[in-house]
Amino acid sequence: MKKRKVSKKEQERIDKILQAFNREYGLEYRCFLNYETPWQLLFATILSAQCTDERVNIVTKDLFQKYKSIEDFAQADQLELERDIHSTGFFKNKAKNIIECAKRLLYEYNGEVPKDINELVSLAGVGRKTANVIRGNIYKEPSIVVDTHVKRISQRLGLTKEEDPVKIEFELMYKLPREQWILYNIQVITFGRSICTARSPKCTECFLREYCKYYINHQK
């Protein structure tokens, strides 16, 4: 994607948005999916596709008690695993991908979750979003995770006009300082759940409304 030069005025606006996020939500790194090991986060993130983190956490509470290791998942019966994860949706593909992913982790990576994004996206069920969740939370590699909240809010704030998640990811990487990438993911998810919801955003309560192009345009 061709980079567009960010004007000084626009950069100042972006900086004010980030400062407001930092004031409101702090600088603490956190993950909304529950896990204890890297492979648990990987499988939980695969389950989170088209599913809420809350639902995934309910499912994995029992799932990770039943399947205690990568070996257990690699040897799992697909139909049984489908039943175990049924409520997360798309359970047939998710079960198949998790089993295939577990086998590759065992046989090609000695049970370790790789760090390299190209190796991560080569695993079954893993796209750039899932790979960046792993890179950011496990390896603390600055990364932008474009989920529904990040896409919607970045568009409303006028940080991107793109629709494709990969293009949004690279545009945000260009416009936001590297040290803010992981924090932006965390802050935007909280913001998107509490204030800037998909339907009926609470614009009058929003601490970003003076910088928000969506709000400004809807006042005209």
UniProtKB/TrEMBL annotation:
Reaction catalysis annotation: 2'-deoxyribonucleotide-(2'-deoxyribose 5'-phosphate)-2'-deoxyribonucleotide-DNA = a 3'-end 2'-deoxyribonucleotide-(2,3-dehydro-2,3-deoxyribose 5'-phosphate)-DNA + a 5'-end 5'-phospho-2'-deoxyribonucleoside-DNA + H(+)
Cofactors that this protein relies on: [4Fe-4S] cluster
Binding positions ([4Fe-4S] cluster): 196, 203, 206, 212
A GO term for molecular function: class I DNA-(apurinic or apyrimidinic site) endonuclease activity
Keyword Lipoprotein: no
Keyword field: 4Fe-4S, DNA damage, DNA repair, DNA-binding, Endonuclease, Glycosidase, Hydrolase, Iron, Iron-sulfur, Lyase, Metal-binding, Nuclease
Cofactor note (record): Binds 1 [4Fe-4S] cluster.
Cited InterPro entries: DNA_glycosylase, Endonuclease3_FeS-loop_motif, Endouclease-III_FeS-bd_BS, HhH-GPD_domain, HhH_base_excis_C, HhH_motif, Nth
HAMAP family according to UniProt: Nth
Role according to the record: DNA repair enzyme that has both DNA N-glycosylase activity and AP-lyase activity. The DNA N-glycosylase activity releases various damaged pyrimidines from DNA by cleaving the N-glycosidic bond, leaving an AP (apurinic/apyrimidinic) site. The AP-lyase activity cleaves the phosphodiester bond 3' to the AP site by a beta-elimination, leaving a 3'-terminal unsaturated sugar and a product with a terminal 5'-phosphate.
PANTHER family in alphabetical order: A/G-SPECIFIC ADENINE GLYCOSYLASE/ENDONUCLEASE III, ENDONUCLEASE III
SMART domains per record: ENDO3c, FES
Protein name per Swiss-Prot or TrEMBL: Endonuclease III
EC number(s) recorded for this UniProt protein: 4.2.99.18
Chain ranges of the HhH-GPD domain: 47-194
Pfam families: EndIII_4Fe-2S, HHH, HhH-GPD
GO biological process, one term: base-excision repair, AP site formation
Family: Belongs to the Nth/MutY family.
